[in-house]
Specification:
alpha/beta, 2 domains, 32% helix, 250 residues, Rossmann fold, 9 helices
């Protein structure tokens, strides 16, 4: 498995889209659910998922150092249980979880089919499995994977074909950045953002650049969760959405 991690302690251009995906996942959680967050990274997503009342979240990562840090960082959240996990060989009994969430994981595993099979095994009948992954038509448009941490990426059809045999439903949406939705684009705001994110300017501390942007436009320089939206139309997803977001039912 290749390693690529997003730390919630760092504000990055990807913070908003990661949080948005977890917030969308949390919409599928009910009171008292038992949840798996697989490839939990620094644990901020598991914390979001645990906010539904009386839930229990098992958060796993293959890296022992990451899990040790999470156990310390989130020790005051009694709903969270962090442990080392292998996505292709889960220790849990059949039909153990109500909801499984694994965001930006499948593109890092060579044995991704085994991971999907394990999710199918440990999810309860009627349970929900949520998987997100880059849309290769946007992330690697010529078919050659650009991200060195990804072992493969998927088209809409390829992801659908992978999930359909294991689940009774597999509904795929697409995540898109919507801060500047076409006709409502603010030319000055957009141009300023591009300038402050330009290669040379990026060497300046983020807090300094963010302060400039906020003082002029009243919002953060880097996108936040509200700057993203899920879209259901397949053609639109394939041509415009950088992330595929699959919600599956057992």
């Amino acid at each position: 498995m290749s390693v690529e991690r997003h730390l919630f302690t760092e504000i990055t251009p990807w913070t908003g889209e990661h949080i948005h995906r977890y917030l969308e996942s949390a919409r599928h959680i009910g009171e008292g659910d038992v949840i798996l967050d697989l490839a939990c990274g620094s644990g901020y997503g598991a914390d979001i998922l645990s906010r539904v009342r009386n839930t229990r979240v098992y958060a796993g990562d293959i890296n022992p150092d990451i899990i040790s840090a999470c156990q310390n960082d989130w020790k005051n959240n009694a709903s969270l249980n962090f442990e080392v996990m292998d996505a292709t060989d889960l220790r849990f009994d059949n039909a153990f979880f109500n909801v499984i969430v694994s965001l930006e994981t499948i593109e890092h595993l060579t044995a991704y089919e085994k991971m999907v099979s394990e999710f199918s095994r440990v999810i309860k009948p009627g349970g929900t499995v949520i998987i997100s992954t880059p849309n290769i038509k946007i992330s690697s448009p010529d078919g050659r994977i650009i991200n060195p941490f990804h072992t493969q990426e998927f088209t809409y059809q390829e992801l659908n074909d992978l999930l359909k045999p294991e689940f009774s439903e597999a509904n795929i949406c697409g995540q898109k950045y919507i801060r500047y939705p076409g006709e409502r684009r603010s030319r000055g705001k957009y141009s300023t953002e591009k300038l402050l994110l330009a290669r040379g300017i990026r060497k300046l501390p983020y807090k300094f650049r963010d302060r400039i942007f906020r003082s002029v436009f009243g919002s953060s320089l880097y996108p936040m969760a509200a700057d993203y939206k899920m879209f259901p139309d397949r053609k639109f997803i394939e041509e415009n959405c950088h992330v595929l977001f699959a919600v599956c039912r057992k």
